[in-house]
Amino acid sequence: MKTKIALVTGGGRGLGYEFCKQLAAQGTTVILTARNEERGLAAAQALQSAGHDIHFRRLDVGEEADIAALAADLKKDFDNIDLLINNAGINAKSSGAGESNFLRNFKLGDLDPEAVLDMMRINSLAPILMAKHLLPLLRKSRNPKVVNVSSWLGSISEKTNGGNYSYCGSKAALNMFSRALAFDLVREGVTTIAVNPGWVKTDMGGSRAKLTAEDSVKGLLAVIHKVKTPDAGKFFQWDGTEHPW
Ligand SMILES: NC(=O)c1ccc[n+]([C@@H]2O[C@H](COP(=O)([O-])OP(=O)(O)OC[C@H]3O[C@@H](n4cnc5c(N)ncnc54)[C@H](OP(=O)(O)O)[C@@H]3O)[C@@H](O)[C@H]2O)c1
């Protein structure tokens, strides 16, 4: 059987690195992309030294020109892409250092339109632009899948408190973009889903989080491998259950 090829954004650390590690251990060829070249290369080398088939590419998902250049470059080296995992993301804490940056994303009185738009560029729009530019390679797969890493904080029905405008809004927009994308692409045999990884111990999730990256990604990969075209447009949790919108 032909080896599967997966591309992961934000693969240098956190859930992105864990996706690369577990996919590679399953025998998948992994294109590990990262904005930070030093960190991405170190992550790729660590997995290569464990004997895995890992290819590093630098990618800032906030720059469409970067995404387009990556897609053109990949066409030279790969016949197809079977799985695109749009994992890269930021929240109010990780979008920039300091309390004032946190507040300009989080609190009504301090809200800064530029901060909100920056977050939407990375969390909401970038996954769709990734699909737009990688579609020619996805089309060449026998069973292509696009996975958008969202959050329970993007669920409108579960939002019962104020604040956190930019992160919650950006993930809610990602959920809607994922639905639109899913219906566009399913006609071409591509299955697109949104996933909630749960509260995970990473730089973003912090040490008090309930899940390890290993357990979250193990559950998410089981979901990803199981879904078929009738599941396009659904929102799944790491444990395989469907998440309310
Ligand atoms: N951890 C949780 O509890 C949790 C819960 C729900 C959803 N999520 C979602 O899960 C995904 C992964 O989160 P995580 O917990 O692994 O976060 P993390 O530890 O903060 O890692 C975030 C990753 O995104 C990358 N990234 C940020 N901006 C980027 C850009 N412009 N271009 C390319 N890469 C960029 C980072 O790269 P650098 O190293 O270059 O900064 C890093 O690899 C995110 O979409 C997040 O919203 C996480």
Account of the 3D structure:
With 245 residues, the chain is an alpha/beta fold. The chain has one domain: NAD(P)-binding Rossmann-like Domain (Rossmann fold). It contains seven helices and seven strands, in the order βαβαβαβααβαβαβ. It has helices spanning 14-25, 37-49, 64-77, 99-106, 113-139, 165-186, 213-226; strands at residues 5-8, 29-34, 54-58, 83-86, 145-149, 191-196, 235-237. The protein has a seven-stranded parallel beta sheet with strand order 3-2-1-4-5-6-7, with helices on both faces. Helix 1 links the parallel strand 1 (5-8) and strand 2 (29-34). Helix 3 (64-77) packs parallel to helix 5 (113-139). It is globular, with a radius of gyration of 17 Å. The structure holds NADP nicotinamide-adenine-dinucleotide phosphate. NADP nicotinamide-adenine-dinucleotide phosphate (NAP) binds at residues 9-10, 12-16, 34-36, 39, 59-62, 87-90, 94, 122, 149, 151, 197, 199-200, 202-205, 209.
Sum up the structure in keywords.
245 residues; alpha/beta; Rossmann fold; 13% strand; binds NADP nicotinamide-adenine-dinucleotide phosphate
